[in-house]
Amino acid sequence: MRNATEQSFNDIKKALEEAGGDEARALEILKERGAVIAEKKSARSTNEGIVASYIHSTGKVGVLVELLCETDFVACNELFPELAHELAMHIAAMDPQSMDELLSQPYIKDQDMKVEDLVTQYVSKLGENIKINRFVRFAI
User: Fold this and answer.
1) Which partner for 49 in 68, 83, 98, 139 could form a disulfide, CB atoms 3.0-4.6 Å apart?
2) Is the pTM of this model over 0.85?
3) CATH T-level topology, domain 45-139
4) Element (H, E) at 136
5) What is the pLDDT of residues 6-34, one digit of tens each?
């Protein structure tokens, strides 16, 4: 569960105890806690971040996405560009027309999760507010 959630051993242990040893329920508990954490952090300013790009193997679709966070420390963490890459690939595949549409779309790698939920997972993992500031998709 540690690799799947990136949560601390203590948080995982607490969730497992609360779930009576049921791993599926423990994952749900961790997800709910992550959403609460993300909500608390959502008002914090995001003045750091990265611009990530993705070019599809055909060379006919490309995406730029500006992903923001609170500190340069998180922007340099290996998980942050990972999220930016996942978002850029999703945008290339699904062609959202607005930020609201993007956030409400089912995530291409897990149809049971929305893109907004994916971002929330990373907020929980990294401990900072994360915001997709803007994106652009080019297609030939």
Assistant:
1) 68
2) no
3) Tetrahydropterin Synthase; Chain A (3.30.479)
4) strand 130-139
5) 566 777 777 778 888 888 887 777 777 76
